[in-house]
Amino acid sequence: MATATATPAETDAKKKKGPSKIVLALVAIIVLLAGGGGAYFFLLAPKPAPSAEEVAKEKEAAEKAKLGAVTTIDPISVNLADGHFLKIGIALQQSAEVAEAVDGSKALDTVIELYSGKTMEEIGSAEGRDATKAELVKEIEEAYPDEVLDVYFTQYVMQ
């Protein structure tokens, strides 16, 4: 009987059959870790808190969804102190729930009540105008509950 001995070419072929089991296991572990890390990063990682600017934009978008028509009221002249007058025009921002234009008579009455007798110094500066407008918005919102959300100036001329 002859004994079979392997030639050097056959020995090299057995060694080059493929990657070893250890290499395959390491590659599999690396792929699993990379996949798990990616899944955590894209799906499970906590989201950063929104910035103040993002929150403001979301709030503004929500407010715009509640906005309805704008009713413009013809400008009126109001007597100020010391013989001066203010020609003021306003528009009322209605809520989306209001079907038809609101009657502007209560708003005009509020404008006359608030601005009559004011001095030009009180309402002439940007700060004074803003403060008086904030008071006007508050009073008009009280006069038109759940109907008017904001007031816009369409004219503001002092003489």
Instruction: List the secondary-structure elements in sequence, H or E.
Output: HHHEEHHHE
Superfamily at the CATH H level of the domain at 66-158? Band 7 domain
Helix share of residues?
Answer: 40-55%
Major pleated sheet: 3 strands, antiparallel
CATH class descriptor of the domain at 66-158: Alpha Beta
Report the count of strand segments.
3
The third-level CATH topology of the domain at 66-158 is Tetrahydropterin Synthase, Chain A
Per DSSP, the total helix count is 6
Q: Regions with pLDDT < 50 over 5+ consecutive residues?
A: none
Give me the side-by-side strand order of the main sheet. Answer: 1-2-3
**Oligomerization state of this entry?**
single chain
Known CATH architecture of the domain at 66-158: 2-Layer Sandwich
By helix and strand content, what is the structural category?
alpha+beta
Strand content: 15-25%
Given the C-alpha coordinates, what overall shape results?
A: rod-shaped
Describe the structure.
With 159 residues, the protein is of the alpha+beta class. It has a domain at 66-158: Tetrahydropterin Synthase, Chain A (2-Layer Sandwich), CATH 3.30.479. 51% of the residues lie in helices and 22% in strands. The protein contains 6 helices and 3 strands. The protein has helices at residues 8-15, 21-44, 52-66, 105-115, 120-124, 126-143; strands spanning 67-79, 85-95, 148-158. A 3-stranded antiparallel sheet has the order 1-2-3. The longest helix is centred in the N-terminal third of the chain and has 24 residues, at 21-44. The model has no long low-confidence stretch (mean pLDDT 84).
